[in-house]
Write a structure and sequence with these properties.
By secondary structure, this protein is of the alpha/beta class. It contains eleven helices and six strands. Bound molecules: xylulose-1,5-bisphosphate and magnesium ion (MG).
């Protein structure tokens, strides 16, 4: 991406965000860097089950191409040359142990919201914009994270909360985003999806929703072709908003130059 485009990205992103009727947030990697806790929780479950599996960060980065914890464990098991049989019931039990351990880790408060997230949620609410969640993880995991970060009444601020088990196909299928649009009763082009991964970008794009990427720990080098803007994190929106307030013509003139 040319230097000029990089410099412009936050203002374009801030403009895109301000003009949306609703912001639809991914969870893992976007709201907080939770994947490191998921990774630790998977390893805890493997140890409890005596599997002898240990996913280090390099392996986990690769395994994140498979969305859904149960699907990820099945994909890993299938990839092993010599592995003991593992039934769907075994996978479900491993996932239950993992999810319980993950919730315990999140509840310690060791995984705060990423920079700029709380401010963006508050700004959007102040602007009267609607909020939604479209994630692959479970409702229990969303609640564990956001109760800790935003208080137990967090859900009242969201008009739609769609989790992986609410739909037939997980990301990169568009299902969670299509379901969010249906519940919001909004058109795709009136919304913005905020994502951290290539799978998330694909899912939202297939639903026709413009996507703002915030790079995360495990997915920062994914292919983000087609994203409307790519930021290091959402705190960049804050300084860009200041630029927009000081010079509202800034973004309009830039869009005109680009023929947008
Ligand atoms: C990321 C995922 C999830 C988590 C693990 O979800 O793919 O599977 O890695 O959570 P998001 P589960 O769409 O929020 O980025 O074990 O509950 O699946
Ligand atoms: Mg994510």
């Amino acid at each position: 991406m040319q230097a000029d485009a990089l410099a412009q990205a936050p203002v374009d992103a801030a403009d895109l965000i301000r003009r949306a009727a609703a912001l639809i947030f991914d969870v893992d990697g976007t709201l907080a860097e939770t994947e490191e806790l998921h990774r630790q929780a998977f390893n805890h479950a493997f140890a409890r089950h005596g599997l002898g599996w240990e996913w280090d960060r390099a392996v986990y980065r690769h395994l994140l191409l498979v969305t859904g914890g149960k699907e990820r464990m099945r994909a890993y098991h299938t990839s092993l040359v010599a592995a003991p049989p593992l039934s769907d019931a075994d996978i479900a039990e491993l996932h239950r142990i993992k999810t319980t351990h993950y919730a315990g880790l999140v509840e310690t408060g060791c995984c705060p919201l990423r920079p700029g997230v709380a401010e963006l949620l508050a700004d959007a609410k102040a602007r009267g914009q609607r909020l939604a969640i479209a994630t692959t993880t479970s409702h229990g995991n969303i609640d564990a994270l956001l109760s800790q970060a935003l208080g137990t009444g967090w859900a009242a601020d969201f008009d739609a909360i769609v989790a992986g088990d609410d739909v037939r196909h997980k990301k990169p299928a568009p299902d969670v985003y299509l379901e969010s649009l249906a519940r919001l009763q909004l058109e795709a082009h009136d919304c913005v999806a905020i994502e951290d991964s290539g799978n998330g970008l694909m899912a939202a794009s297939r639903a026709g929703i413009p996507v703002l990427i915030t790079r995360s720990m495990f997915c920062r080098d994914d292919d983000f072709t087609g994203a409307r803007a790519v930021l290091e994190d959402l705190s960049e929106l804050g300084s860009a908003n200041q630029k927009l307030k000081n010079n509202p013509m800034h973004s309009r003139s830039r869009r005109r130059d680009r023929g947008a």
